[in-house]
Each structure stands twice: as structure tokens, then as C-alpha cells.
């Protein structure tokens, strides 16, 4: 599997894009920056979209993706998420007040987007992948995903604070080759991080014992205003050398 970090930050600035990971060019995980981060022709090649939760930095570019690719394909973008997230997106984004309802455009019979529900504990065959959806410790219907293909599995927690279910599931597998997780705030903001259900470097350090061992960890969702401080604190807990910081976008990893 090839994982392209279109955007790997927990905020937006001229140098930082919000969360969007693209697997093999056709499976998108979250849509915080897909429309601004890849060409329209590459956007049109996406088949399936996993949405972890409905916070704006993970869904905003669904609006522009639909607008950019309107009428280009003979099938809709298939969007996979839980019912709570679908309802949030439809009620607050694709509601014909903030943005057109692309589940009915160009027509109900041939829409630009189509939602499919996947709930925590579900496993689905989605394209070439087996996708396991697992609840994580965050808001707005948050799911993490374990994605399997060709005998390899990758864990994507997206946004989460200290959590358990996804690590329990991952440890039952013997084919995990990478973990994509997050650290959002410096250690001095630990209370804020925990209240908003995110990680600091110190809370991540405690989390490491829950994860499958000897697997590389890639940390995103760093807040743009604290990049230097976060990078230093993460390196201080990187005793094994298996932690890699997604400090810049447009990086690709092959597993």
C-alpha cells in the first residue's frame, strides 16, 4: 500500500494542510485538504472515501471535491462513515444553505456522492481493501480504521486521545506494518489535550505500550502554531526510534 499524506496537520496555514491521506490513489481517508492538495484529475480517480468524524478539518474539502468533479465520472464517490457523521455532514454542510446537496446532483438517480454507513465493530470489503472501523476517543462520531490489503494491515486512528479498542483489535493481527496516529498539543497543554480528546507527547508515551510492538508510528495532526515545540517533545519520547513526525505535507510511504 502506498500512503500519500496530502495534509497531515491539525490546522491550516500557508505551510500546513488539514488531514487527508490517500491510499493507492483511490482510497481517501478524510477530506480536510484533498481538493487543494491534489490535481482535479487525481481527485476524479478516487473511488471510496472514509470519513473518521465530522469536525471541519476532516470534511471541509468534501464540498470542493464534489464541486470539482461534478459530471466527470459515471459513478458517485462512495463515502463510508457512521450514521452520526453522515447526519452531521448532511445537516450542516450539504444542506443547500451552506453548500449544494451533491447526493442529489446532478440527479437523485446519478449523484456525485453516495453515503454508506459503517459503524464501530464493522468490517467491510471496500474496493481492494478490508476495512475495520473501530471507535476511538474523540468527538463527532469518531472512528479509527484498520485497512488490510495483500496480507498487510495499517492502523489509522486519525483524531484521538488515549484510547483502547483500536489497539486491542490491532494486537490481534500479526500483519500490522504501520500505525498513523496523532499528537496535537504540547505537554504544557495536557489538560486541554485531554479535554478535547487529543494527545500530547507525554500521553502518547503512555499509549505506546498498548500498540503493536516494533511497528513504525507516523504522527500527524500537529498544530501549526506549535510545530517546533511538538517536534522537540516527540523526539524526547522517541527512545526506540520508531516514531516519525509528519511535519510536512506531500509525503508518501510504501508498505
TrEMBL record:
Gene3D superfamilies: Ribonuclease Z/Hydroxyacylglutathione hydrolase-like. Transmembrane segments: none annotated. Residues 17-221 form the Metallo-beta-lactamase domain. Signal peptide: none annotated. InterPro entries: Metallo-B-lactamas, Pdiesterase2, RibonucZ/Hydroxyglut_hydro. This is 3',5'-cyclic-nucleotide phosphodiesterase.
